[in-house]
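Researcher: Sequence of Zinc-binding dehydrogenase follows. Predict its structure.
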Amino acid sequence: MQAWVTDPQVSQGIALREVPIPVPGRGQALVAVRAISLNRGEVRDLRQQPAGTILGWDTAGVLLQPAGEFPAGTRVVAFGWRGGWAQYRAVNLNDLAVVPAEVELGVASTLPVAAGTAWRALQACGNVHGRRVLITGAAGGVGRFAVQLARLAGAHVVAQASTSARTAGLETLGAQEVVTTLPANLAPVDAVLECGGDDLLHAAAGLLKPTGLLVHISGSQAQLPTLAPSQYLRFGLGTHLRADLERLLVLVAQGQLDTQIVWRRDWQRFPTAAELLLARHINGKAVLDL
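Model: Prediction complete. Tokens:
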């Protein structure tokens, strides 16, 4: 099979190569990949990986053989921390979900990391109905899902993006307030979903109510704000996403969640997609079709 593997000898740091088809282990399924959704985080880190590594988190495709309760040919969305940038991948059964007939595979491929992160981070905040939720970095993949999911949960959504151009469409997704900075006189918030990196971390923390929670999704832990332990959560997506993916797929099928695909090409255009993501020229999701 073909796969995009890390290669420090080429300018993009990645090359299309012939590699063996993976053999699924116990509790895994073999998926023929039909669509890949790229995330800035995985693209950013590819040069730090050993040569020959197959990265790739988010995919959708069809099962090549029966696995668990799923027959061969089942359409699935599949997540894993590696192996997705390939024609075939082996994935854990607890990290895949059946894609409803109403949802196209490319659309489904956008969900695991970006929507899954937004979903789990919002769940960590508890009941946000009627509460003010600040989402920094709201123009990115995670942020755009977070805006929609927070609004569906009944929150008053304050969405922050770095420039006025990047704020485009956030009100349509459900944001009641859209800002490019976090002035100190902004009304206090009950929760912060930090999706924008370290630059606004301290400003966001300063807006948090004493009973609020800051969920630190992106950025480093180099300079953490001074918050009580009950006010701060360093988020990690983890695994076992099946139940979350099933819920998210229902929302997509019902038309309540827009996956915000703004760039979609054949997977041969992988290097172009990576460059655009790193330059923050894609406000939404990028999908590659196989």
